[in-house]
C-alpha cells in the first residue's frame, strides 16, 4: 500500500512538473514576443520586443546566411509561420538565428519580407517538388522493421518477468499486460506510419539558378532558403538501400553557430540532388 501511494505521489509530482514547464514556456514566449517590432534602416534590421524586459538588437544584412521559416502543428492549422534569419552571430536564445517575425499569417509573409529584406527573393511554394513516393515506402518499411524489433524485445521481457513483479505493481496483472502490450505496439506502429505519411506531404525542395529551398519535417516543419554563394559546404550521401531506390540525402553547412550551421536535406530523387550539386559547383568555380 505504501509503495502504491509513493508511486502515485511520484506520478503527481512528474505531472505537475511537466505542466509547470509547459505553462512557463508559453508565458515566457508571450512575454518575450510581446510588442514585437522590426524595421529596416540602411543595411541593418532593428528588432525590439518584450513585456517585462525589453530586448533590442540589430542584424547586419551582410551577415545573413539564410532565411528560415518554421511552423508548428498548431501553426499549420492556423496558417501561421515564424520567420527567422540564420546569421553569422547571435545572442542568447537567438544564437541559432535571429527572429524577424515570431508568428504571422502565411499570406502576409511576402509583403512583410519586401519591407524588411527586399534583396532576398522568396521562392514560390507551389513550385517546390515533393520527395518521391519511394522515400515514403522506404520510411514505412524501416518503421515496421523497427517496431517489430521493439515488439520482440517487449514480449521477451513480458514472458521472462515473474508474476511477483506484477503483484508488486498492484493494479496490473500479467494477463492484463498481455492484452495491453499488443494494443500499445499497434498504436505506436500506426502513429509512426501516420508521421511517415505526413512527412511525404510536407518535405519539399526547389532548386533555382542562384538558390535552393529545402523543407523538412512532419507534423511541424522547417524550411531554409539559401543562396549557393552562402553555402560553405554541400554534402550528398547514400547507403545501399538509397542506391537501390535511386534516392540521396544531403547536408548544407553554413557560416553560423554550431546549432544552425548544419542543415539536413531529406531523401529526394538522386537526379534532383545531383542537379543541386552541379548548381553549387558552378557557383564556387
Q: What is the gist of this entry?
A:
47% of the residues lie in helices and 29% in strands.
Which labels suit this protein?
285 residues, alpha+beta, 7-stranded antiparallel sheet, 3-stranded antiparallel sheet, 13 strands, globular
Descriptive account of the structure:
The protein is α+β, with helices and mostly antiparallel strands. The chain has nine helices and 13 strands. The chain has a seven-stranded antiparallel sheet. A three-stranded antiparallel sheet has the order 1-2-3. A three-stranded antiparallel sheet has the order 11-12-13. The longest helix has 32 residues. The protein is globular.
Strands in their spatial order, largest beta sheet: 6-5-4-10-9-8-7
Q: What count of helical segments does DSSP give?
A: 9
Unreliable runs: none
Mean pLDDT: 80
* N-to-C series of helices and strands: HEEEEHEEHEHHHEEEEHEHEH
What is the element layout, followed by pairings?
Layout: H1 2-33, E1 37-41, E2 44-49, E3 55-60, E4 64-71, H2 73-78, E5 80-87, E6 98-105, H3 109-116, E7 129-130, H4 133-160, H5 163-169, H6 174-200, E8 204-207, E9 211-217, E10 221-227, E11 231-237, H7 240-245, E12 247-254, H8 258-261, E13 262-269, H9 270-284
Antiparallel strand pairs: 1-2, 2-3, 4-5, 4-10, 5-6, 7-8, 8-9, 9-10, 11-12, 12-13
Amino acid at each position: 500500500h505504501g509503495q502504491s501511494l509513493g508511486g502515485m505521489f511520484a506520478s503527481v509530482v512528474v505531472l505537475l512538473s511537466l505542466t509547470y514547464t509547459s505553462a512557463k514556456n508559453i508565458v515566457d514566449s508571450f512575454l518575450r514576443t510581446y510588442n514585437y517590432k522590426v524595421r529596416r534602416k540602411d543595411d541593418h534590421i532593428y528588432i525590439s520586443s518584450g513585456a517585462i524586459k525589453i530586448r533590442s538588437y540589430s542584424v547586419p544584412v551582410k551577415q545573413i546566411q539564410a532565411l528560415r521559416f518554421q511552423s508548428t502543428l498548431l501553426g499549420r492549422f492556423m496558417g501561421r509561420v515564424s520567420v527567422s534569419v540564420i546569421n553569422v552571430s547571435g545572442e542568447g536564445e537567438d544564437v541559432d538565428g535571429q527572429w524577424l517575425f515570431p508568428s504571422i499569417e502565411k499570406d502576409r509573409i511576402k509583403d512583410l519580407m519586401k519591407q524588411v529584406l527586399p534583396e532576398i527573393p522568396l521562392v514560390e511554394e507551389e513550385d517546390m517538388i515533393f520527395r518521391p513516393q519511394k522515400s515514403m515506402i522506404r520510411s514505412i518499411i524501416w518503421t515496421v522493421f523497427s517496431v517489430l524489433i521493439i515488439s520482440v524485445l517487449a514480449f521477451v521481457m513480458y514472458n521472462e518477468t515473474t508474476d511477483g513483479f506484477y503483484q508488486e505493481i498492484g493494479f496490473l496483472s500479467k494477463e492484463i499486460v498481455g492484452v495491453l502490450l499488443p494494443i500499445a505496439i499497434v498504436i505506436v506502429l500506426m502513429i509512426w506510419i501516420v508521421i511517415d505519411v505526413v512527412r511525404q506531404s510536407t518535405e519539399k525542395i526547389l532548386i533555382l539558378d542562384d538558390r535552393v529551398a529545402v523543407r523538412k519535417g512532419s507534423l511541424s516543419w522547417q524550411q531554409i532558403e539559401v543562396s549557393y554563394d552562402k553555402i560553405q559546404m554541400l554534402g550528398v550521401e547514400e547507403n545501399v538501400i538509397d542506391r537501390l531506390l535511386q534516392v540521396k540525402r544531403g547536408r548544407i553547412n553554413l557560416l553560423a553557430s554550431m546549432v544552425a550551421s548544419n542543415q539536413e536535406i531529406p531523401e529526394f530523387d538522386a537526379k534532383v540532388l545531383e542537379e543541386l550539386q552541379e548548381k553549387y559547383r558552378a557557383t564556387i568555380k
